[in-house]
Design brief:
With 299 residues, the chain is an alpha/beta fold. 27% of the residues lie in helices and 25% in strands.
Length: 299
């Protein structure tokens, strides 16, 4: 039998370095530090903690339902844990990197986290080109929603609210797409910083430097998680052979390959190459497949 005191439960709502903000079931927020040297909790974690003066000590991290992370050559970066969905936010302007988008979707797929794409700034003329670039994603069954978070906020709210209700959604997207605008619109008391200032300074810096959990409603049933921008989205947690199964458009055609261990790069009787030839897999998606495959295979 354990003679430890019963520990409090909490939700990690922000993290920076070895500092975490833990929210108690009644909504209080406590600054906590992990016990010992290791600091392996992330936003979205359920933890057991113990008060220590005004602050707290995290004693234990509950098992996770899922964890979204990326792994570059040198480091692993966790985004958040226990997510109901990933929202990849892109915009008509600035132009998004399709490779980054694809990588985020692959990471979500490998963590079994449902994902959808929100395309912002539909008021700008560049929306048509952005919409076209997203066609392969809509065709492979990923929901793509178009909004103008700033130009038409009421319509955006009406569209997005039902998709976000009673869920914890991580918002990922390049700098300048409208993540902070989204959070300010849907989480009324969020102090998320909209990039007006950085825009005025024309500094182009990320205004979000820590991952942060925002409740959308006073009942605390729906949440948005804002996370810092990133330059690189490495997928080194994966084996090259896993990749086709994590890309729905390739996966579908890989069933037709003559060889079970087809890499879809040069083999005869390859269903993926045949589909590419027929235009059923887009050239950009295939290029991204090759790019990531080579990255993973060259280790
Ligand atoms: N035209 C147009 N501009 C928008 C829209 N939504 C947001 N913006 C603008 O886009 C810029 C970037 O918005 P933010 O919300 O700061 O973007 P962010 O993704 O948080 O950017 P970082 O914090 O740098 O990662 C701001 O100047 C917004 O006013 C929109 O619907 N239409
Ligand atoms: Mg921001
Ligand atoms: Zn093949």
């Amino acid at each position: 039998m354990s003679h430890h005191v019963e520990l409090d439960v909490g939700l990690v709502v922000a993290g920076h370095g070895r500092h975490y903000v833990v929210e108690t079931p009644d909504g209080a927020r406590v600054l906590c530090h992990p016990r010992g040297k290791k600091s392996d909790c992330v936003v979205g974690d359920r933890v057991r903690w113990q008060a220590s003066g005004d602050e707290g000590v995290i004693e234990h991290v509950e098992p996770r339902r899922n964890l979204l992370f990326r792994r570059d050559e040198w480091k692993t970066k966790s985004f958040a844990a226990n997510l109901d969905q990933l929202i990849v936010l892109v915009a008509a302007d600035p132009t998004f990197s399709e490779s980054q988008l694809a990588r985020a979707l692959i990471a979500a797929e490998s963590a079994s986290i449902p994902a959808r794409i929100v395309l912002n700034k539909s008021d700008l003329p560049a929306i048509a080109a952005a919409r076209d670039r997203l066609l392969p994603y809509a065709r492979m069954g990923i929901d793509v929603h178009e909004v103008a978070l700033k130009a038409a906020p009421d319509a955006a709210r009406a569209l997005l609210m039902p998709l976000l209700a009673r869920r914890a959604s991580l918002v990922l997207g390049p700098s300048g797409t409208g993540k902070s605008t989204l959070i300010n619109l849907l989480a009324p008391d969020a102090r998320a910083q909209v990039g007006e200032i950085s825009q005025a300074l024309n500094s182009g810096r990320h205004t979000t430097t820590t991952t942060q959990w925002y409740w959308m409603d006073p009942e605390r049933t729906s949440a948005l998680i804002d996370s810092p921008g990133f330059q690189e989205f490495g997928l080194r947690q994966l084996d090259a052979q896993q990749l086709p199964a994590l890309m729905p458009d390739l996966r579908e055609h890989a069933k037709a390959c003559r060889f079970y261990n087809c890499t879809h790069l040069h083999e005869p009787g390859c269903g993926v190459l045949a589909a590419l030839e027929r235009g059923e897999i887009s050239e950009s998606r295939y290029r991204i497949y090759r790019e990531i495959f080579e990255e993973l295979a060259s280790r």
